[in-house]
């Protein structure tokens, strides 16, 4: 979050999962990697910025690609760097919470983002 806006990246239209959808930066935790370190690494790789983690907002489960995914949503704020779409994204930007319903976002992520709008504003 920055100035009541959320940073979202647009996935490549060639991605297998959620092609062309806007999503919250994130990714997989590497073997032996701590969750918060993975979050900071993934955000830096995808967006070019370094973040400070504020708090855990929630946990969700997703089932796709023949896998069971456990997704941790954190509130974080940028501390350094300039945003730049990483190699897996075709665009990146800061968006108001009101923009979410107008954007192409996966149903799972849109539902979750809408459910945590109140927490994101805090």
Description:
By secondary structure, this protein is of the alpha+beta class. It has a single domain (5-121), classed as Alpha-Beta Complex (Nucleoside Triphosphate Pyrophosphohydrolase). It contains 3 helices and 5 strands. It has helices spanning 35-47, 107-115, 117-121, and strands spanning 5-11, 22-23, 49-64, 67-81, 89-96. The strands form 2 sheets. The protein has a 3-stranded antiparallel sheet with strand order 2-1-5, with no helix packed on it. A two-stranded antiparallel ribbon has the order 3-4. The longest helix has 13 residues, at 35-47. The relative contact order is 0.25.
- Class, according to the CATH hierarchy? Alpha Beta
CATH fourth-tier homologous superfamily: Nucleoside Triphosphate Pyrophosphohydrolase
Q: How are the strands of the largest sheet arranged? A: 2-1-5
Q: What percentage of the residues does DSSP assign to strands (E)?
A: 35-45%
Per the CATH scheme, the topology name is Nucleoside Triphosphate Pyrophosphohydrolase
Distance between the termini: 10 Å
